Please model this.
Amino acid sequence: MSRGRLTTPLVRDGGELRPATWDEALDRVAEGFERCRTTSDTTTSFGIFSCSKASNEMNFQAGKFARQVMGSNNIDSCNRT
Model:
């Protein structure tokens, strides 16, 4: 394992990053998705970029999350290159 690799999530408080628990970090992610979904037009403000090296199942789930949970059809991948 690289010495510079993060092993603990970091969250931003007042502009500064600080270590957090996984539960706190995941709660913040969920709150951010919910805030984006309910306070903005997700058809223009949210998108997913998937990877051609991921499995078909993973890319399918990413697209399904974008469409059904976030209400966005903005899905792209590097498959075209």
